[in-house]
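Work Package 4 report. The design task specified in the project plan requires that, given a folded chain encoded as structure tokens, an amino acid be chosen for each position. We show below one input record used in the internal validation round.
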């Protein structure tokens, strides 16, 4: 695995922790439940730490958008699958656009 590929793997792990943070925040019920609240804080710190590590090798703007876009897309899917959030054609269209943007930005760095 090249250094850049390794940085991308770290970035996507950071996005996974961002998704975990969002789930934990939902389950914390406004910081009233200690375990999910602790998981939310720990995963947020881990996510930011891994983002910082990935930024050593990846372009700032691209990495940040991929991190936030991947986290947002993941949480939209989690919300629809596990938290009863609306599943509509419009949501799928905009989720697809978000994912297309993340993939497109990732591909723009392929040669960098």
């Amino acid at each position: 695995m090249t250094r850049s590929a390794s940085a991308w793997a770290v970035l996507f792990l950071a996005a996974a922790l961002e998704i975990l943070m969002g789930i934990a925040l939902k389950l914390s019920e406004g910081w009233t439940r200690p375990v999910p609240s602790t998981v939310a804080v720990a995963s947020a710190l881990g996510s930011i730490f891994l983002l910082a590590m990935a930024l050593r090798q990846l372009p700032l703007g691209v990495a940040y958008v991929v991190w936030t876009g991947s986290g947002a897309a993941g949480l939209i899917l989690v919300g629809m699958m596990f938290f009863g959030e609306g599943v509509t054609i419009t949501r799928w269209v905009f989720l697809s656009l978000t994912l297309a943007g993340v993939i497109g930005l990732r591909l723009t760095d392929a040669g960098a």
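Residues 3-108 form one domain. Validation will be extended to a larger panel in the next phase.
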